Amino acid sequence: MSNIIIDGKEIAMRFREGLKEEIAELTAAGMTPGLAVVLVGEDPASQVYVASKVKACAELGMFSQKFALPKETTQEELVALIQQLNADDKIHGILVQSPPPKHIDEEAVILNIDPRKDVDGFHPINVAKLVLEDESGFVPCTPLGCMELLKAYGIETAGKHAVVIGRSLIVGKPMAHLLMSKKANATVTVAHSRTKDLPALCRRADIIVAAVGRPEMVKADYIKPGAVVLDVGINRITDETRPRGYRIVGDVDFNDVKDHCSAITPVPGGVGPMTIALLLANTVKACRQILAASKG
Ligand SMILES: NC(=O)c1ccc[n+]([C@@H]2O[C@H](COP(=O)([O-])OP(=O)(O)OC[C@H]3O[C@@H](n4cnc5c(N)ncnc54)[C@H](OP(=O)(O)O)[C@@H]3O)[C@@H](O)[C@H]2O)c1
User: Fold this and answer.
1) Longest dimension (CA), the chain
2) How far, in Å, are 8, 141, 249, 280 from residue 32 at the CA level?
3) Active-site annotation holds for 65
4) For residue 272, which atom of ligand 1 is closest to its CA?
5) Do residues 237 and 250 make contact, with C-beta atoms less than 8 angstroms apart?
6) Digit-coded pLDDT (tens) for 140-198
7) Do 181 and 43 touch, CB atoms closer than 8 A?
């Protein structure tokens, strides 16, 4: 079966190149897009994510500011910083790296982010805009990245049956909304931990999006021949042959599945690189909208 390995690195690189011009135009108009990344605590994976977001901004000529706060930071102190960033003219996007320490109420923190600067798309106003298909809102970066991959490879969604495995606010739910939107026109089924006979359900899918957090759960018997498989999962599994003692795998058993589908994203190098690219795109969009509003 003809089988495409979707190259997320390549598509993300092209996408970022496309943003460069827009950033230069905004800078010339007196407003360089700026992203504030707030990290509370010392979670090693979060530190890596934050560093790569800051680096990506610099590569495209965007302004970025990193706030690394100690794990003892109180909710009040964090909210005070967010309010300061809401009022900061150099900042157009605000991101609080998830997960924060347990004593922080993440939902309450998100409510304090100005929805116009909520580039993660977690604020209820942006969630509502996604449901309403109001494109002025911000949509979480990972599902947006999945849609860009489908577009880049000319994969038709209209009239197709898509099964999204996972119903999180960060991936599963927004993914389902994007696929069922009037732009994409897929028929969508959302599966979760209580779904019965998931393999049989997935075998009816033309497109499968796996966002579960279970290493290599999706096997060949989940796949209708010729289906498209997007693997959002990022899981560490022990591998003593690797210098770090682990390797990263997706929610899909790539080697088991790849010969049964028409296109598949690898992990790493599939959906992952698109997430940062879309974060930058959301920040540029926020900057553009704030600039337009300032001109009345
Ligand atoms: N590529 C990226 O940039 C990126 C970004 C975000 C996340 N991720 C990765 O994507 C994965 C999912 O992340 P998330 O934040 O969405 O995770 P999450 O919040 O833990 O949600 C996982 C979802 O999977 C469902 N689930 C769990 N076990 C299942 C099973 N056996 N069968 C069917 N559904 C099951 C859960 O169902 P219930 O609702 O019933 O519990 C839940 O809805 C993780 O590996 C994460 O690291 C990657």
Assistant:
1) 59
2) 27, 21, 37, 12
3) no
4) 1
5) no
6) 999 999 999 999 999 999 999 999 999 999 999 999 999 999 999 999 999 999 999 99
7) no
Half-sphere exposure of 139 (CA within 13 A, CB side): 26
Query: How far does the centroid of ligand 1 lie from the alpha carbon of residue 78, in Å?
Result: 27
| Tokens 């920040």, residue located | 283
CB burial of residue 250 (10 Å; 0-12, 13-18, 19+): buried
Question: Rounded to an integer, what distance in angstroms lies between the CA atom of residue 250 and that of residue 236?
Answer: 9
C-alpha to C-alpha distance for 243 and 154, rounded to whole angstroms: 38
Confidence of residue 296 (pLDDT cuts 50, 70, 90): confident
Tokens 């979480």 belong to residue:
140
The finding on whether 166 has its CB within 6 A of some atom of ligand 1 is yes
23/145 Cα distance (integer angstroms):
19
Domains and CATH numbers, the chain: 30-114 (3.40.50.10860), 141-272 (3.40.50.720)
Active site residue 221: no
Query: What is the token pair recorded at 294?
Result: 């300032």
Contact in structure between 31 and 75 (CB atoms under 8 Å)? no
Letter for the amino acid at 64? S
195 lines ligand 1 (CB under 6 A): yes
- CB of 233 sitting under 6 A from ligand 1: yes
Q: What is the full DSSP assignment across 93-108?
A: EEEEPSSPPTTS-HHH
Residue with token string 């969604």: 157
Cis peptide before 268 (omega within 30 of 0): yes
